[in-house]
Design goal:
It is built from 9 helices and 7 strands. The chain is an alpha+beta fold and about 220 residues long. The strands form 2 sheets. Strands 1-2-5-4-3 form a 5-stranded mixed beta sheet. A two-stranded antiparallel sheet has the order 6-7. A hairpin with an 8-residue loop joins strand 6 and strand 7.
Length: about 220
């Protein structure tokens, strides 16, 4: 757990660094890390995901980002891919790596808002622009159906618990139920359990996604 807390502090320091370098301004914070740092998602997240908030020259932005990161960090991977920009780096050799991936897509109008990123493991708050919870809900629905990761299911249940309305097509609902029932004990013990806060880990090992399944079933009443 101490390792994950240190990683989260590194993520916060990178948000602060990106803002200071003027690299955060065109970005919309997304993914599980945004939910963790801005909305207290009770699991740790290992990468930082962004979309663009406004149209920019993607190639020029990539070059600015890569050059800035290389000046201060040990870069282990940097790619200007067709659909995304990826930079992976660490403070120095032997330390954990952090991956930043930015989708080369402009966030839909009205899908983002200003938020405060914060962590008990970092002394400073950082102003960011991130997806609304309703947009994150839609992103997580699509991610769970597409890749079937247990962390996406956890995040989806978190959003429903936060009051985001279930808005699903019938085929999406059935596919999600299928994914939820397909997770194995090892998925809860290792894949999910390794990044959950201690106070919720035992609950999910025992109850799994009972709450989300009940909410999905309630739609049929």
């Amino acid at each position: 757990m101490e390792r994950l807390q240190g990683r989260e502090a590194f993520e916060m320091s990178m948000l602060q660094w990106l803002r200071a370098k003027g690299l955060l301004q065109p970005l919309a914070f997304a993914g599980g890390t945004m939910l963790r740092l801005c909305h207290e998602l009770p699991r740790y997240s290992l990468d930082m995901d962004f979309w663009f908030f406004k149209q920019v020259d993607f190639d020029a932005y990539y070059q600015r980002l890569e050059d800035a990161v290389r000046q201060e960090y040990d870069v282990t991977d940097a790619q200007n891919k067709f659909y995304s920009i990826l930079v992976e780096f660490r403070k120095k050799r032997g330390m954990p790596r952090l991956k930043i991936e930015i989708r080369k897509t402009v966030a839909p109008a009205g899908s983002t808002e200003e938020k405060i990123a914060f962590s008990p493991h970092f002394p400073t708050q950082v102003l960011v622009r991130g997806f609304t919870l309703s947009r994150m809900y839609r992103n997580k629905v699509l991610a769970l159906i597409d890749r079937g990761e247990i962390r996406d299911a956890f995040d989806l249940e978190f959003l429903v618990r936060r009051g985001v309305a279930l808005d699903l097509k019938e085929e999406e609902k059935q596919e999600i139920i299928k994914k939820l029932r397909g997770f194995k004990k090892r998925d809860f013990d290792v894949k999910l359990g390794s990044v959950l806060l201690p106070e919720v880990r035992d609950y999910y090992r025992e109850k799994r996604f009972t709450y989300l399944e009940e909410k999905l079933a309630f739609q049929d009443w």
